[in-house]
Amino acid sequence: MSVKIIFNNIIKRYGSNTVIPDLSLEIKEGEFFTLLGPSGCGKTTLLRMVAGFNSIEGGQILFNDKLINALAPGSRNIGMVFQNYAIFPHMNVSKNVAFGLTNRQIPKPEIEKRVAHILKTVQIEEYSSRMPENLSGGQQQRVALARAIVIEPDVLLMDEPLSNLDAKLRVDMRNAIKSIQREFGITTIYVTHDQEEAMAVSDRIAIMNKGIIQQVEQPQTIYQKPSNLFVATFIGRTNVLDATLQGQTLEVDGYKVEVPISAKGWKVKASVRPEEFFITEGAGEGIGGIIEHSVFLGLNTHYFITLKNGQEVEVVERSTKRAVYAPKTEVRLTIDPAVINIFTADGEKNLSLGGGPNA
Amino acid sequence: MLEKQKRDMWTLITFGALAIYAVFLLYPLLSLLVKSVLPEGQLGFGSFAKFFSSKFYYGTVINSMLVTVSVTICTVLLAVPIAYILNTVKIKFASTIQILILISSVSAPFIGAYAWILLLGRSGVVTQFFKNTIGIQTPDIYGFTGIMLVLTLQLCPLVYMYVSGALKTVDSSLIEASESMGCTGLKKMFKIVGPLILPTILAGALLVFMRALADFGTPMLIGEGFRTIPVLIFTEFISEMGENDSFAAAISVMVVVFATSVFLVQKLIAKRKAYSMSSLRPMQVKEAKGIKNFFAHLFVYGYIVLAILPQMYVIYTSFLKTSGKIFVKGYSVQSYVVAFSKVGDAITNTFILALSALAIIIVLAILIAYVTVRRPNFATNLLDISTMFPYIVPGSILGIALLTAFNKSPLALSGTAFIMILSFAIRRLPYTIRSSSAILHQISISSEEAAISLGASQVKTFTKITLPAMLPGVLSGAVLSWLSILTELSTSILLYTIATRTMTIAIYTEVLRGNYGTAAALSSILTFITIITLLIFFRLTGKKELSM
Lengths: 359, 548
Known about the structure:
Oligomer: heterodimer
Largest interface: A-B, 25 and 21 residues
CATH architecture of the largest domain in chain B: Orthogonal Bundle
Distance between the termini of chain A: 42 Å
Strand order of the largest sheet of chain A: 6-7-8-3-9-10
Distance between the termini of chain B: 30 Å
């Protein structure tokens, strides 16, 4: 039932404007795959090319070995969940859910059985005869999901399905989506601009920018080993410091630390996440700075610190019994050299992943 | 009244507007009712009995029903596909076609009737051509067929504009959802798009129904023996003026009751089937391929040629040389010279009367829209219903009602310019009220509250905050009101005197007298004014369409 999806050198153009220049990708069978990127990065465009609503100007999209470029949307056996749900306002919940099945000439008793089952799965069986206008956002979302899944699609496509829900419901729904996807094992492409959501639901994430895939990896790898500075700054928070790398010595603002990679006097950019800094008081080694202000959030405490060179950085510490550093406190920051990422000066390449800038 | 509202200037405006409607609409209609049941000064239903006693009279009801229902069905069958095609398929010169559709709708129906007579009538060009060169007798254009043809083509744009507007509120994701589940083409049209726009189709159909029912000029010119109710009312009222207009009143009352029930039934159905939709991404026109593309173009072009042909032909004949009443070989501007010298005053009258009415319409519409939208209570509800009445009451009936009510002191208004302006204003107010309230519904009340909380007075809040935001909506309604005043015939034909004769009346009388050249010249001037109005409107608003 489920398929793998292969993109070979996909090109998308609107007139003379190229939105996706050349994209290749393979999505595994049964995988929960997320396209993540800032708005306008081409993620929705790519999703709609799979759905058949956008034309494909070059390259191939294959479901297993089947070329689908020229296939009509209705013939691709796809379930799609739209951003605004696209629930038909003139049909009640069960009619909405049954819509795809009635178009497939499935016998009526069979339709009723499958609709009842899926409504139960998405936990809206008590609303089966309600009209959409009498449903809350979360319930409409469940109808949209049920309608997409009930046809037993080869591929499930979701276009920012949670963006119209409030924060709490978003968390509930993404868990529901994830568990339903696991249960059915449908190859799923999920589009979002919310990185936390992407981290929470995905087997793998593709980070897109300007129509180009920057990195395709599991959530953990993307966070810890971003392939370039764009990914490092887009996923999670990070501080980018100008540094030089001489041998294995990284020097930032006079502070020297030994790192696992080496080079001959290159200017580099060091991406240090807030939790990869350590704060100490008094004399000793480290980058000098002054606490500007702090935010105590229970588990963690965030510090906003101005370095000697004027740059402002964010540091996170596990909260302790000790009093929070007061503003204007002079501190020194040291770096955990094993976990930080060092990029070339143009930010295009992560040196920590091995190989020199010229490799 | 759920919420106790303060008495302020809006209360005053509400009651002022109600008073205007009470005096100038409800009182005349009541006078008509009284007249119908008091034939000789005492209570009796003789007029109603007379109507049902002779087929000559009640036959007109059958005729009117036949025309109205057929025209409504044909219009919907023609207009809905055109709206759907123009909103989903890429048609070459689509924006020109949209403007042509508008132009075809904003002429008086009887001009269409007279143009079709020139083309397909007994001595029409097309008829003569077929008879003399090919030897085929073309079908008779007079009677039912002619009325059908003229009114369908004339009223089609109304449904087109309604449906077009509704299609723009259908989000394309609904269409895509349907397509991705294998529901495409005609099936998609019937199962998804159709039901979603059904309330709008019904609203458009109702408007067509009322217009077809009320139209007087078309059956008068092209109907010949096929008499409809407005024709009967008019002839009875004119011929028995002063003797027994109780009979005309009785027919009028029956028509109003009937029209009101149709209106209420439509409201009931539309309410049950209405869905609120907000479209994030409206449907896009797409290039169609092959045979589908061919037929889409053929259908749209075929329609637009038929729709615009009468006006084009009228413009053409306006430049023909005439000798007496007959067109002769060669071209000249003689008809225009005659038009200006003979009925130049009609042009001036039209502008004076129509502009005065328009000014009243704009002021009243803005105020009425504001109180009905922002101050919903019993009084404003009543006002809302009163303003809808002119939609239902046919123009000729309103004309008779006004004459019945205002032919004696203290309000002896008949024959004055004021009664003309009044009838124009009352009849064409609904357009502007409708568009003004529509836009007001979209303006958040919080900007008004912000202004009030910042210390602005009610008047200042309204004039500086609300009114500027309302203007685009007011403008589009005002254009419709203006254009429909220019082509108004059925009320003014009863109310006019030589001093208040409008262009439309002049055209009608010239056609009746057989002065086709002068009529054509006047019609062309009217079309020209229409086009200029539309161009100014498009320029001002940057739009390409007139929304209803």
